[in-house]
Amino acid sequence: MAHPIESRRVIVLRKTKLGESDLILRCLGQDGSLVEAVAKGARKPTSSFASRLELYSCADVLLAQGRGLAIVKEARLVEGNAALRSSFERSVAAAPAAELLTRVAQPDLVHPRLFDLTRAAFDRLARAEGPAVLALVAAHLLKAMAMVGFQPSFSACSRCGAPVDLDAAPSCVPFSFLEGGVVCPACRAHVETTVQATETLRWARYLLSARLDEVAAVGIGADAAAGALRFDQAWIKVHADCRLKSLEFLFTSGLQAV
């Protein structure tokens, strides 16, 4: 009996070898759900899938739905994003964004804005230089976490809701990753907090709210961008319950010193 055919637009997040010539693809669907499928023969030099289903590319695919993983029957390249694979700097930066999505996206959970966010982030990462690369991935991670329900509070106490003005705050402020945001002086004794640099929180607040084209052009320094990424790392560890290996590699690669 023929399997039903489904057309999907996807962004390729991860590729895993299967057998001698096949690939298992983990992709972000246009509705924000996780799409897992097998591309048979994709590792053969003569396969048309090889250039159409590269990592970080956007493609239109036809999937045959079976009892197990779907099978890719056809693929048409929409955006190749080759610069994310040819440049070490951009490849290392794109990896945490892709890895986070494989952790927070689910096959039957719809988050349409995740796709548009990731497509735009990859497009801008492919053209970014220097610290803007780090700023863009930091912004993507924060925005993606917010879209799936984990948005940090930078303007109100995460325990009592009292206003907190980061622009008038001293150099360091108490922040609770468990509670979900900044903590006012009155609540600090009752909540587990860490001391965070106010500048880092201001940058994280900006990256969360700004458009990606603004992030790319803002002129953030390398230290500030790396600080925002370390904030992301701690936030993701608590609220997505995972450590992104690709983000840890980024910190050891020397990229944050660019």
From TrEMBL:
Lineage: Bacteria, Bacillati, Actinomycetota, Coriobacteriia, Eggerthellales
Identification of the protein by name: DNA repair protein RecO
HAMAP family cross-referenced by the UniProt entry: RecO
BP terms from Gene Ontology: DNA recombination; double-strand break repair
Keyword Manganese: no
Xref: InterPro entries: ARFGAP/RecO (IPR037278), DNA_rep/recomb_RecO_N (IPR022572), NA-bd_OB-fold (IPR012340), RecO (IPR003717), RecO_C (IPR042242)
Annotated Gene Ontology cellular component terms: bacterial nucleoid
NCBIfam families with a match to the protein in the record: reco
Domain DNA replication/recombination mediator RecO N-terminal: residue ranges: 8-79
Membership in a protein family: Belongs to the RecO family.
Keywords: DNA damage, DNA recombination, DNA repair
Its job: Involved in DNA repair and RecF pathway recombination.
Biological source species: Xiamenia xianingshaonis
